[in-house]
Amino acid sequence: MERKREHVASAVDCYMKEHVKSQEEATEIIWKEISEAWKDITKMHQKPTPLPAALIERLLNYARFYHVLYEHGDAYTHPQLMKAQVASLFVNPVPL
């Protein structure tokens, strides 16, 4: 979808151009980098910090939200992609 908008370059397009890689290679590399970033976030979240815990938790939740939002496509632009997740939270919640 990003390619249909002429004025916007996707992360995959930028990576392909900068590193002379195919779309498949660039996509795979970017997903590996995302995986490594989550490992870094997890490690840093476990270390003591002078920042308030509430701030750290809020930032971590933003990262989690955006990961879910874009994990299987652009659910921001196409909210129907989130239909199953929303239904599992509000329509069919797990009984406690």
TrEMBL record:
Record field: transmembrane:
none
Top-level taxon: Eukaryota
InterPro entries documented for this protein: Isoprenoid_synthase_dom_sf, Terpene_synthase_metal-bd
Q: Give a Pfam family name.
A: Terpene_synth_C
Q: Where is the Terpene synthase metal-binding domain?
A: 2-40
What GO molecular function terms would the record report? magnesium ion binding; terpene synthase activity
Name the record gives this protein: Terpene synthase metal-binding domain-containing protein
